[in-house]
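Private note to self, pasted from the team thread so I don't lose it. Backbone tokens:
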């Protein structure tokens, strides 16, 4: 992991009371081929985008990427003023996999500003704190002179359309490359954007407390410390899903690509498989709570020491291994929880295991080591 990326990860983790993770992710060993990337350039105008917005032909999913409408009114007003002044703006980038509904890859805040200002009409915002065109302060789009309404709608733009048929990993790489400036998208935000529909909804349902009992169990077991704004909670769920559907013995770095495959696997899983996975996730959360209480998914070296932050690698391995137990074995493990917790403390003192959940967590050897060791202490406890 690059130094600046680790710094951002550490910052987000600190806010979430989640241990910062340096997973030394390794780039995919097989780069995508240029022939797999087909991008069409379209010369449009703002009016074209507005018309598409009015007919729901541009997807502004409220959970896409970060969120639309993150700009405040002043920033939105400055963008509209740029259009009125004829100042150049960056190109827009869309995923055109669905001919009837483009998804925004780059330009979400600008497009959501157009929707808020023009499409919403009377519900739209009023221009505020303009730098040059002071006469239009406190004006809605409908209150602008016709000449200036036309100036906005005829403003020329460039749109790059990623054609249908591009492999998912190609889309993933393009998302990462485009979103290098400003507030960089998290890997989970990219995965969410690529896997709209059943996969995105399923992941959300596992961790959102306002959705169902499963989400409530996740929030309780993680003590409600994992924030939702940058989809950090869904990153946890995707780790579980990926190693639940794709055995750890099949894991090959990098972790981002593996988790992307995990989300893709949701789409091809049967309804029965998804229902069982959700039940198993709920059972894993309840079991972790019954065994560890507020210490769930945290390193522990001494029973009396202060609690550590939640560790993603521990969440990944413990949630999956607990989910894969039968109901009877989960009950047995809870009965023997004091023995299991002592074995877990000893395991955390193993320097190789500690390194596998702390440093280079996405390396193949680290994944194998932590899964085999947790499997071992579970089995030893059940055989006690």
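Design output:
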């Amino acid at each position: 992991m690059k130094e600046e990326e680790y710094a951002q990860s550490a910052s987000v983790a600190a806010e979430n009371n989640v241990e910062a993770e340096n997973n030394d992710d390794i780039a995919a060993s097989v780069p995508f081929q240029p022939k797999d990337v087909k991008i069409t350039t379209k010369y449009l105008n703002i009016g074209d985008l507005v018309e598409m917005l009015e007919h729901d032909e541009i997807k502004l999913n409220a959970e896409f990427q970060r969120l639309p409408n993150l700009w405040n009114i002043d920033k939105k007003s400055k963008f509209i003023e740029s259009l009125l002044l004829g100042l150049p703006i960056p190109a827009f980038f869309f995923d055109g996999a669905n001919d009837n509904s483009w998804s925004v890859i780059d330009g979400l805040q600008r497009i959501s500003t157009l929707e808020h200002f023009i499409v919403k009409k009377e519900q739209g915002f009023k221009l505020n704190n303009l730098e040059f065109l002071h006469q239009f302060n406190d004006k809605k789009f409908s209150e602008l002179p016709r000449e200036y309404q036309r100036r906005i709608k005829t403003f020329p733009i460039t749109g790059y359309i990623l054609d249908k048929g591009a492999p998912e990993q190609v889309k993933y790489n393009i998302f990462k490359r485009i979103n290098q400036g400003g507030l960089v998208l998290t890997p989970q935000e990219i995965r969410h954007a690529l896997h709209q529909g059943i996969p995105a909804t399923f992941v959300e349902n596992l961790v959102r407390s306002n959705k169902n009992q499963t989400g409530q169990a996740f929030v309780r077991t993680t003590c409600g410390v994992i924030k939702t704004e940058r989809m950090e909670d869904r990153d946890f769920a995707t780790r579980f899903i990926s190693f639940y559907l794709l055995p750890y013995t099949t894991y090959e770095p990098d972790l981002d690509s593996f988790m992307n495959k995990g989300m893709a696997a949701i789409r091809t899983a049967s309804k029965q498989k998804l229902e069982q996975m959700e039940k198993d996730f709920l059972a894993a959360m309840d079991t972790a709570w019954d065994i560890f209480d507020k210490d769930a998914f945290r390193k522990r070296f001494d029973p009396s020491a202060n609690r550590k932050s939640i560790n993603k690698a521990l969440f990944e391995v413990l949630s999956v291994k607990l989910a894969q137990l039968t109901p009877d074995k989960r009950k047995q493990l809870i009965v023997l929880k004091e023995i299991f917790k002592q074995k877990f403390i000893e395991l955390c003192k193993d320097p190789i295991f500690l390194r596998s959940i702390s440093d280079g967590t996405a390396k193949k050897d680290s994944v194998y080591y932590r899964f085999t060791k947790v499997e071992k202490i579970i089995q030893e406890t059940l055989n006690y």
